[in-house]
Amino acid sequence: MSARAGVVYLVGAGPGDPGLMTARSLELIATADAVFYDRLIPPGALDGARKDAELAYVGKQPGVPSVPQEEIGERLIAAARQGKSVVRLKGGDPFVFGRGGEEGEALRAAGVEFEVVPGVTAGVAATAYAGIPVTHRDDASAVAFVTGHEDPQKGESALDWDALAGFPGTLVFYMGVKRLRENAAALIAGGRDPEEAAAAIERGTWPGQRTVGATLGTIAAAVERERVKAPALIVVGAVAARREDLAWLERRPLHGRRVVVTRARAQASGLAASLRDLGAEVVELPAIRIESRIESEEVRAAAAAIGVYELICLTSPNGVRLLFEAIAATGLDARALAGATVAAIGPGTARALAERGVLADVLPERFVAEAMVDALAEVEVEGTRVLVARAAEARDVLPDALRERGAEVDVLSLYETVREPPDAEAVAAAQGADYVTFTSSSTVTNLTEALGDGFPSGARIVSIGPVTSETARAAGLSVDVEAERHDIEGLIQALLKDAAR
Ligand code: SAH
Predict the structure, then answer these.
(1) How far apart are CA 185 and CA 152, in angstroms?
(2) Which residue out of 21, 174, 178, 250 has the highest number of ligand 1 atoms within 8 Å of its CB and is therefore the one to mutate?
(3) Distance between CA 415 and CA 268 in Å, rounded?
């Protein structure tokens, strides 16, 4: 159900992994008039918001002036009173150390209707991702979520440290890094065993998740030595030792590797998602973006006359998508291709066709224009009308070869790849990269020219195939890994093999 007018939704966004956002949270974000969000929400959490939605950052960052809590309440109330549907988006769960209770009370006092959407709280998510079960039949029959933010030295602490020390189960401390030394000492003074297992989990469920294991007696020193920073959880309890068997995230093949993806954003998602699934921290650094040309006279005319072509060659998934959009714009559909032989340059392109109900007749074994020429040797083209639908800046190998064989070839530029200045934050993140992946010559040229001397020097270069490698070498890069199969899957396989060295 969509967000209702005049209602405020106190929504948990989970601990950081976008996959842990609830279906309900995504539905509300997608339909709300306004979203007031905190700092620790997952990357891309607001991507699904309406284009015309008001997005307001009201987070708190240590040491930076922030919007006072009272003002947040007032802004929520004002927006609801204007008849807006409002999402108040918070990290983790809104009612677990999230001040959701206070905001709900302010809304109730003002007579504003609200709903609460729980989120996956860091205390169970970061621990699970670290391989620490917060309860276990042998080790812990209870778990306590505790704030580590209160100073045990001060008399005003709301926590009874002796009682906490005696708690029969796992202790999970939120906000517990800064006062860890005092807190651990207070637990030991209260009778907790200094030999009990403990762990600190930094940035749980985020790409750079890190776990530091120790004992209650040594955890403070370990956290200082390893420079663990917020956001981090501290776990005290025998269950913390179970991660030696149960850790799984940190065992994924690309865990801890930072990989730069240079494809245009419209194309990058598949590669980026696969790399993330394998545990990599992905930095998307597109230096190009795809600019559609399907509004052009040339494309409109070709799409309307698509039925005249006996052979249609498609050279990228983007080309397929845009050709079908252009065909649809003329009121036609896939049946307009019924009479044609359809050739796809590679499996990604073939897949994009299949999704639209067309199975490619010709699919070369290697995914370059030259191989497409070979694969088409079997097809009679003399005197036939052929459409090569592709990017504006593509090479002319294919149309030239077909013309030589007597075909009447129309080359249709469905899109253009245009330069896009890389995002400064992504450029900074790329500096520490382990790998930079190149999926085409244009990604090499655009990125090297955009970055100049700022190209990440320590990273290993992964290329999708010989043409791309050649361009990389010409740009002064040394290619460390070249895919054997020249498609995205092949590039991932090659990267995995290299990472396992
Ligand atoms: N409402 C949030 C907690 C907010 S308090 C929730 O339910 O998770 C902020 C504290 O939560 C941080 O100081 C840290 O201790 C913890 N935290 C939040 N996200 C975390 C993460 N991804 N990994 C580890 N700890 C996290």
Answers:
(1) 9
(2) 174
(3) 16
| Long-range contacts formed by 329-334: CB under 8 A, 24+ apart | 329/294, 329/300, 329/303, 330/300, 330/303, 330/304, 332/303, 332/304, 332/306, 334/358
Cβ–ligand 1 contact at 204 (below 6 Å): yes
| 38 counts as catalytic | yes
Among the ranges given (107-111, 183-187, 223-227, 443-447), the one the predictor scored with the smallest mean pLDDT: 443-447
pTM: 0.76
What the block records as the tokens of 288 is 């190009």
Cα separation, 358 vs 421, in Å, equals 36
CB 216 within 8 A of CB 181: no
Query: Strand 435-438 vs strand 385-391: parallel, antiparallel, or unpaired?
Result: unpaired
- 229 is annotated as an active-site residue: no
What phi, psi does 207 have (nearest 5°)?
-55, -40
C-alpha of residue 55 to centroid of ligand 1, in Å: 22
Write the pLDDT tens digit of every residue in 96-127: 999 999 999 999 999 999 999 999 999 999 99
Closest CA to 368 of 392, 404, 394: 394
